[in-house]
Amino acid sequence: MRKKTLLSILLTAVLVGTLVTGCGSSEQASSNGDGSDAAQTTADADTEESSGESAEEAGQEEAKTESSGGLSSATIVPVADLPVQGIGAKVTSDVKANEDYKIGYIAKNTTNPYMIAQAEGVKKAGADMGFTAVTQAPSTADSVEEQVKIMEDMIQQEMDVIIVHCADSNGIMPGVRKAQDAGIIVLTIGTPGSEDTFLRTGVDYYETGYTIAKEMAEALGGKGNIIVLEGPPGAANAIERLNGIQDALAEYAEIEIVASQTANFKRTEGMSVTENLLQKYTDVQGVIGCNDESALGGLQALKAAGMTDVLVAGFDGSVDATNAVESGEMFATYNTDPYGSGYIACAYAVNYLNDGTEPEGKFIPFPTAEAKPVITSDTVKDYMDNVAWWKMVQ
Question: How far is residue 199's CA from residue 153's CA, in Å, rounded to a whole number?
């Protein structure tokens, strides 16, 4: 049953009336959370495309500002204080629903294993915590218009909570506002809305970039030439991850980023871009792809060029990347844990519905570096055997 008391409606009104542009996230931008007015996710990866030069510039400027100094805009909650224990396939919670709440989850698509895993995390939370989980996605992949329509339908179904992985930060706001006006709390995962919601969770892209880049720099002994395969231009999550990489590598006087070029989070582009760059830059010790798909494309190009001693790193902890780390072909990846992100969003929602417990901040990253999400040769076996989020969708 949706809590539509006068108090909750007044609280919602106050919240809406005091919104601050952006969730204080490492994905956030001034015009919207993606730095674009028409973000679009590719089927290859969990990312937002952008259009509009002025929006892109605004997004880049805001993203750079927010990443300065690290995670100042995020609330880092110690693992022991989270409403869940563990990450990935090991995630559990002691949270129990006092009533049979209805919690809706809206993915961006049903084609990306990342999105599928996130929906499964919500379903598992419903089974563990005792609420009814309703998961949906647009029939046209990454359609924010359909996401808004699904939100409107969920309002009519009197959901207590709506969780959404936004396909577009600005475009989702009509649905968010309608839900809030109806007394329904809204949580976002990964890509935030362009205005504050009850909570945003999912990884902090700046932190992931910083962490992986530091791992590579240390493995290279603090010296070497590195190629970076960027995400889509203007997508603020990609910008934030790039900023984290750049800030980490800037700490090493003898490390140089010799080339940094977009591969749009795609394996095919990661391969072609790396092939082209290797024609000019033959002395390379490391390649960082801003997601696993682009990193794996870079790996293919390196293998074709006979450069098998170059360290390659990516992000997401996908099946293929994990296998590449296990075989020694890739140096590292980062478990961004979509399954656990869906699960923890539900735990925060249930706690609030039970007794009004508020999250510690508007953006609580999950998982963080404290959860040891970096996957290298030292940790890959445990990850594959016990933690991997993709085990939950196979």
Answer: 21
| Distance separating alpha carbons of residues 108 and 87, to the nearest angstrom | 22
Question: In this predicted model, which residue has the larger pLDDT, 23 or 219?
Answer: 219
Between CA 351 and CA 283 the distance in angstroms is 53
Type of residue found at 309: D
pTM: 0.78
Determine which of 22-26, 76-80, 362-366 has the lowest per-residue pLDDT on average: 22-26
Residue 224 contacts residue 247 (beta carbons within 8 Å): no
- b or e along 166-192 (b: 16 or more beta carbons within 10 Å of the residue's beta carbon)? bbbbbbbbebbbbbbebbbbbbbbbbb
Over residues 191-223, the pLDDT tens digits come to: 888 899 999 999 998 999 999 999 999 999 999
Could you tell me the CA-to-CA distances from 381 to 292, 322, 325 in Å, in that order?
Answer: 18, 9, 10
Is residue 182 within 8 A of residue 155, CB to CB? The reply is yes
Q: What angle do CA 270, 309, 205 make, to 5 degrees?
A: 45
The span from the CA of 354 to the CA of 309, in Å, is: 54
Residue 275 to residue 264: CA distance in whole angstroms:
15
